[in-house]
Amino acid sequence: MTDDEYAELAAQLDRLSAVPDDVLSEVVARDGLCLWAFDRSDFPEGETDRATAARMCAGCPVVDECLELDLRTAGENTVGVWGALPDTDRRALFPVWLRRRGGEAR
Ligand code: SF4
């Protein structure tokens, strides 16, 4: 992803900035495709996280909520696939997102 894409994505999450953690968590647990529609272990071994994210999160109705929650809770220590992104992208997005929040996770 490019710097502009990270900036655009971080701006897209602004609409969720006032949503409490527990509400985000409830929405993602309830509606997240990977949390009720299928098992993450169904994906082929050896598939890259980027490919898994594209496949697993396609059509998920709570991608932004999932991404926002992961940025808040895991931040730069994030691992695996969340919010339709591999962890490398979320680690790069984290400081951009954090700056938009004034340096505070909440
Ligand atoms: S965005 Fe992806 S990782 Fe997050 S709940 Fe949806 S399917 Fe799962």
Automatic annotation (TrEMBL):
InterPro entries: 4FE4S_WBL. PROSITE patterns: 4FE4S_WBL (PS51674). Residues 33-92 form the 4Fe-4S Wbl-type domain. It comes from the Bacteria. This is 4Fe-4S Wbl-type domain-containing protein. It comes from Amycolatopsis japonica.
